[in-house]
Design brief:
This protein has about 220 residues and is mainly α. α4 crosses α5, α5 crosses α7 and α8 crosses α10.
């Protein structure tokens, strides 16, 4: 693929750095007027789409993409810092499959976190990480591990923070539960009235049953 060095350097700080004098590619560009760069790890179709955007070939850019392709694009946008130039296209891509954005926990939350990170979708990113923190489970399952491997390009701090906050939330919940059971006199007397949507006593019982199944109770 032949591209314009001026276009890619203007669109991407990463390319701008690579093509500066002092780097092999930059030295070649200055001396012979062109440079060859191999992108062996990048998805060819996603890379071509981004180059078409950079070079103003909007008629060659798809209006909609699959979930898998969106993930490939998010990875390259993040890798080459192309957030600004793809902003309006990414809006359309995400809108076209917005009904697939998870609203509860299942394994696809992980790649959706990656997509939102790659395209700087802060609101959706916060919502999805909150789902993972509060309701995520089976992180060690084969499917979860496969999804996390697919998103290995994400900064480690993301999943480390999710894990840390989950552990703190679980510890706090179990601590409150243990305190409620051991020192009931210090708690308010709860009555299950018909008008209440949730009965506190039944809620505690449900938590204990679920925790016991997962060997989290007794402590």
């Amino acid at each position: 693929m032949v591209v314009s060095s001026r276009h890619v350097m203007l669109a991407s700080r990463v390319f701008n750095a690579i093509l500066q004098v002092g780097f092999t590619e930059g030295d070649a560009l200055k001396s012979v007027g062109r440079a060859e760069i191999e992108f062996l790890e990048d998805d060819p179709a996603a890379f071509t789409t981004l180059m078409n955007i950079i070079h103003g070939k909007g008629h060659n850019v798809p209006c909609t993409v699959t979930f898998e392709k969106l993930l490939d694009l998010a990875k390259l946008v993040d890798k080459y810092d192309l957030h600004e130039c793809v902003f309006w296209f990414s809006e359309g891509w995400i809108q076209s499959i917005k009904d697939k954005v998870p609203t509860y926990w299942y394994e696809d939350v992980i790649p959706w976190i990656a997509i939102c990170w790659g395209f700087h979708r802060s609101v959706e990113f916060e919502s999805l990480t909150r789902i993972a923190i509060k309701t995520g489970y089976n992180f060690d399952s084969a499917r979860c591990q496969k999804q996390m491997a697919t998103c290995a390009w994400l900064p480690d701090i993301i999943f480390e923070t999710i894990k840390e906050k989950r552990e703190k939330l679980i510890a706090k919940t179990l601590g409150e539960l243990q305190s409620w059971l051991l020192y009931p006199s210090k708690k308010k007397e709860y009555k299950c009235l018909q008008k209440n949507k949730v009965c506190p006593s039944m809620t505690v019982g449900t938590i204990l049953i679920s925790a016991s199944k997962r060997k989290l109770w007794p402590l």
